[in-house]
Automatic annotation (TrEMBL):
The record marks D150 as: Raises pKa of active site His. It comes from Ancylobacter dichloromethanicus. This is Phosphoribosylglycinamide formyltransferase. Residues 8-187 form the Formyl transferase N-terminal domain. Pfam families: Formyl_trans_N.
């Protein structure tokens, strides 16, 4: 009987790589339906590169500073993804805007994790902005990547409470713990073909994750 090959995942990072590690750890389970084939950083000094190497994952660097503009950088990145025979791309703290041509080429095969409950708080400094707005519920989102930043079809979200006395650091830590739960779970759904793009939205055949407990702080 032919052995079916797991999809090869390229994880793109720019920094410490904690979400990358959650994907590597999840994919080390024999029943995980995808293989982390390579980690690619746009920063040569990204701490995540050493962490990936320590887990025996191949790493590549495509230094954005070596390219004149976004189009040339994206072409180089695309060439590396093709060389590595990537089937799926996971952006994991990858802090570069991608060109429409690149995102269109990888449409339906590239996913991102964002530290907020989209469509709220697109962009940067999400935890500071959530605290400034006084929201009581915050969280994180895994979505397919489309040309417009932080707008693509949503695969999975997790909510956390915002507690009195939270700082950006305490809130960020609470959200990050949930990022590490939902990113591997969402990749599993995509790699299994159980989360599919239908008419610009995500159809999920089966909801496999129990939502995290949400604690609503008592009124003062
Ligand atoms: C994560 O919180 C991720 O959601 C965020 O950067 C952090 C990377 O941490 N991504 C974005 O803000 C993308 N818009 P990590 O390197 O430890 O995974």
């Amino acid at each position: 009987m032919p052995v079916s090959k797991k999809p090869r995942v390229a994880v793109l990072i720019s920094g410490r790589g904690s979400n990358m590690m959650s994907l590597i750890e999840a994919a080390s389970a024999p029943d995980f339906p995808a293989e982390i084939a390579v980690v690619i950083s746009n920063r040569p000094d990204a701490h995540g590169l050493a962490r990936a190497q320590a887990s025996n994952i191949a790493t590549r660097t495509v230094d954005h500073k070596a390219y004149a503009d976004r189009a040339h950088f994206d072409a180089a990145l695309d060439a590396v993804l093709e060389e590595e025979q990537a089937d799926l791309v996971c952006l994991a703290g990858f802090m570069r805007l991608l060109t429409p041509g690149f995102t269109q080429k990888w449409a339906g095969r590239m996913i991102n994790i964002h530290p907020a409950l989209l469509p709220s708080f697109k962009g940067l400094h999400t935890h500071e902005r959530a605290l400034a707005e006084g929201v009581r519920i915050h969280g994180c989102t895994v979505h397919f990547v489309t040309p417009e930043m932080d707008v693509g079809p949503i695969i999975m979200q997790a909510a956390v409470p915002v507690l009195d006395g939270d700082t950006p650091d305490t809130l960020s830590a609470r959200v990050l713990a949930q990022e590490h739960v939902i990113y591997p779970a969402a990749l599993r759904l995509v790699a299994d073909g159980r989360a599919r793009l239908v008419d610009g939205r995500v159809s999920v055949d089966e909801f496999i994750l129990a939502p995290p407990a949400l604690v609503v702080p008592p009124a003062r």
